[in-house]
Amino acid sequence: MQSPHMTDVTQHNFREVLERSASTPILFYFWAPMSEESAQMIPALQQLTQQYEGAFQLAQLNCQEEQAIAGQFGIQALPTIALFINGQPVDGLGGPQPIAAIQAMLDRHLPSQDERTLQHALMLVQNQQHAEALPLLLSLSEEWKRKGDAKLALADCFLATQQFDAAKVELSAIPMEYQDGYYKSLMAKLELHEQAADSPEIQALETAFAQNGRDAKVAVELATQYHQVQRDEEALELLWSFLKRDLNTLDGDMKKIFMDILNALGQGNSIASRYRRQLYSLLY
């Protein structure tokens, strides 16, 4: 099955493919079976197209079968590569080329990998797919993570995945020009969480635990309250301070609550992953 990012050009679809360059850059590849070097490059070029994930489309034209179109382009060497953007040729290469040279040509005209990743992540955030967007945003280079729209998207994803401390860090460093309605809505979500996360019940339990830091029952009650208001890292750290000394604390009830919180956070949560590894290091 051919990738949606690749097309074989014929006299029937040539105009349509060329017009498509108004919205998506088209990389025309002129080759022929009689030119072994041009045929050998096709798999590597197709692999490169897949790596760019839709940043351009590869249009392969067999000059042996489509001599009229090749003539319109004035093809004199095989292979020949021509990059079209907005219906116009903007760059090209003639003769056999290393893939690195083709990539360098593309990078002169196409968005960078970070830019493409950010645009994809922003689309996912817009569609409320925060869990899918978060790893993409975290994969950005430090330079791109510092951009205002990336920081807002990261904060949004952290709030949606209940990583409130991380969201607070991002929101505290949003450039002034990005402090718009979107920013204010994220700040409001964070403030609501912080108000709910410091209830009188939690304050009373914190006082009781401060007076007797060895009381495992109070620790369990406090950790449970923390979990209910999404203060999960504090909940897990509190329980772990007992479990690392005795996994059977409170006849195993504490370990069960610890595991319940880990399971509630899910496999993709970085905090849960860290404490799960610590637990496994004791068990095995």
UniProtKB/TrEMBL annotation:
Task: Read off the PROSITE patterns from this record.
Answer: THIOREDOXIN_2
Report one GO cellular component. cytosol
Q: Where is the Thioredoxin domain?
A: 1-111
Q: Which organism is it from?
A: Vibrio furnissii
One of this protein's GO BP terms?
Answer: response to stress
Q: What is this protein called?
A: Thioredoxin domain-containing protein
Molecular function (Gene Ontology), one example: protein-disulfide reductase activity
A Pfam family: Thioredoxin
